[in-house]
Design a protein that fits this description.
By secondary structure, the protein is of the alpha/beta class. It contains eight helices and six strands, in the order H-H-H-E-H-E-H-E-H-E-H-E-H-E. It has two domains: 57 residues; 185 residues, NAD(P)-binding Rossmann-like Domain (Rossmann fold, 3-Layer(aba) Sandwich). The two termini are 32 Å apart. The relative contact order is 0.16. Belongs to the short-chain dehydrogenases/reductases (SDR) family. InterPro entries: NAD(P)-bd_dom_sf, SDR_fam. Keywords: Membrane, Oxidoreductase, Transmembrane, Transmembrane helix.
Length: 318
């Protein structure tokens, strides 16, 4: 549904630099995701369903009893669905890639803050060699405290092909060939209607969210394809690429293109069994990038917490 009435454009521009300590959490203890998770581990779990069947058997319930028939039918249906889900996942994804973090080299774009920072910290804690590429300048004496000891931080514009080539050579020299590539760079949301959005702002969003990913994959993917151990390509996109809202024409278009780019790459390298791809289309996250967005219902539209909040946070390269 569309409308020419300006009152429907509810999205407002995000403040460029939120004050420290002003970030509010969008996470609730009880959400639809929590409820589904609890149900999947209880009433919708085939193992739990078969426990009820065993309890009825222990009571010597006749096989013609309605309770017995219902319990067996329910447990059987859950078992069939679980097996079908496993078969479907294996057919779609193939055999999982064996990962030894001590021998993995991870390159993350947009890793100076937000989700990218959290990913870099997690891989660093697991013993992987991590390289973070971001346009933000981070003081060298504070990098170990922020990212973890031994993380290679490279200040560069990931939308600049030449800068990426230089960054790749440095990673090869200091860490080795990257085996896990994670595209997490994202431009800040402008939050302006299409008619009010400057062309240069639109181009900047496309450049950071989409063109940067194109350059990243063209520069780093050949190394993964040529490696005997293979590798993993991870694209962090957004649900806004599938379901947009007013004031997000540039951001939604770039994320839709990013998801399409990932699926194209997936189709092109599908025949290589040692290369895995993962597309993550996240929803609202509890970082300052989305701190100004308030969902109408936190039960159905809860934000995803990253566990840490910093000024200027948001998984952004801009």
């Amino acid at each position: 549904m569309t409308s020419s009435n300006p009152q429907f454009l509810r999205t407002t521009a995000k403040p460029p630099h939120p004050a420290p300590g002003t970030t509010k959490s969008h996470t609730n203890i009880l959400t639809i995701d929590t409820l589904i998770s609890i149900l999947s581990k209880s009433l919708l779990n085939p193992f739990v369903a078969w426990i009820f069947v065993l309890c009825l058997r222990a009571q010597v319930t006749p096989s013609t009893d309605p309770a017995w028939i219902l319990a067996v039918s329910y447990a059987t249906a859950l078992t069939v669905l679980s097996v079908a889900r496993i078969i479907n996942q294996r057919a779609a994804d193939g055999v999982p890639r064996t990962v030894d973090f001590e021998h993995e080299v991870v390159a993350i774009t947009g890793g100076a803050s937000g989700l990218g920072l959290l990913i870099a910290q997690m891989y660093s804690m697991r013993g992987a060699s991590v390289a973070v590429l971001d346009i933000k300048a981070v003081p060298e004496n504070s990098r170990d405290e922020i990212f973890g000891e031994g993380v290679l931080y490279i200040t560069c514009d990931v939308a600049d092909r030449g800068a990426l080539e230089v960054a790749k050579e440095r990673i090869l020299q200091e860490l080795g060939t990257p085996t896990i590539i994670i595209n997490c760079a994202a431009a800040r949301i402008n939050g302006r209607s299409l008619l009010d959005l400057p062309a240069d702002a639109f181009e900047k969003t496309i450049r950071t969210n989409l063109l940067a990913a194109f350059h990243l994959y063209q520069v780093f993917l050949p190394g993964i394809i040529g490696a005997k151990s293979g590798g993993t390509l991870v694209t962090v996109s957004s649900v806004l690429g599938q379901l947009s809202a007013a004031g997000l024409s540039d951001y939604a278009a770039s994320k839709a293109g990013l998801s399409a780019l990932h699926r194209t790459i997936e189709a092109e390298i599908r025949g290589n069994p040692v290369i895995k791809t993962l597309l993550v289309e996240v929803g609202q996250m509890s970082t300052p990038l989305f701190d100004w967005v308030h969902a109408p219902n936190n039960f159905f539209c809860a934000g995803l917490g990253t566990g840490r909040s910093r000024p200027g946070d948001g998984g952004s390269d801009r």
